[in-house]
Amino acid sequence: MTLPKFILGDNTDHPNAIYVIHTEFPRFIINLENDEVEWFEDFEAEDQKELEAETELAIKLATDFYDSEIAKYQE
Fold first, then answer.
1. What is the mean pLDDT of residues 45-74?
2. Which of 12, 38, 52, 60 has the fewest CB atoms within 10 Å around its CB?
3. CA pair distance 12, 5, nearest whole angstrom
4. How many Cα neighbours within 13 Å face the side chain of 2?
């Protein structure tokens, strides 16, 4: 099965939270309600600098994905 790079998620136990799941490395879930990120990866200290740049871009892309998906619903 091929997964999309981003998946939207919600949960009735957290009615105000909107989640974007990033399925490629570095894998994470971001809660757009409070920008909290949960990582599925374990990072080594020596990878910190490289991952910071990749992470910043991945989180921006996740937010852009959400905005794009919501715009499609509003059309």
1. 84
2. 12
3. 24
4. 1
Strand order in the sheet with 6-11: 6-11, 14-22, 28-31, 36-39
Question: 3-class DSSP state for residue 35?
Answer: coil
What global pTM score does this model have? 0.79
Q: How many CB atoms lie within 10 A of CB 41?
A: 11
What six digits make up the tokens of 41?
């990866």
Whether the upstream peptide bond of residue 26 has omega within 30° of 0, thus cis, is yes
Please tell me what DSSP assigns to residue 5.
Answer: S
Residues facing residue 22 across a β-bridge = 6, 28
What are the pLDDT digits (tens) for 8-39? 999 999 999 999 999 988 889 999 999 888 88
